[in-house]
Amino acid sequence: METVDLDVFDIRILRHLGEQGRISVQDLSDQIGLSPTPTARRIRRLEEGGIITGYGARIDEAALGFDVSVFVSVQLDRQVDDALVKFETAIIGFPEVVDCWLMTGDRDYLMRIATTGLRDFEAFLVGKLTKVDGVASIQSSIPIRRVKAGGARTP
User: How many Å apart are CA 129 and CA 107, to the nearest integer?
Assistant: First the structure.
């Protein structure tokens, strides 16, 4: 991926699109103080440079019934390429896992699980996660409330 130099207009574009992904180019250009054509050109350059990777809706999981999140740390019995691939392949197939990171430190993975409740989480834990080959230990933490939420960090 080629490095893209950002100026004040690019940063304004990123911040506005991060908050309002459906804003029209005309409205965006009005808000950042640049005419529509160069605004559209800058958006295209940010997309082609890999800085803007897509557009999507922010979905309220609780409104869909998934009002319990659980953070789960997983340690594998061995951290070799084959074991990582098997674990990641299994996790990708679990809709309950909404985020998953390969970690440094004493745990191999950190995941956020979204469920309809603790019984749903228990069913996921016992029926799916503990059955994944190579899982040595699991630690779960239940958050009390979200303090800050956001998309990507912008300059």
Answer: 15
Higher pLDDT, 152 or 49: 49
Tell me which residue of 36, 35, 37, 29 sits closest to 13, measured CA to CA.
Answer: 29
Q: How large is the average pLDDT for residues 34-49?
A: 96
Both tokens of residue 99?
A: 């985020």
pTM of the model: 0.84
- Strands of the sheet with 68-76, listed across from one edge: 97-102, 109-115, 68-76, 135-141
Contact 7, 46 (CB under 8 A): no
The boundaries of every CATH 1.10.10.10 domain in the chain are 8-48
CATH class given for the domain over 8-48 = mainly alpha
The 3-state DSSP class for residue 7 equals coil
Closest among 61, 74, 65, 66 to 149, alpha carbons compared: 61
Is the pLDDT at 149 greater than 70? The verdict is: yes
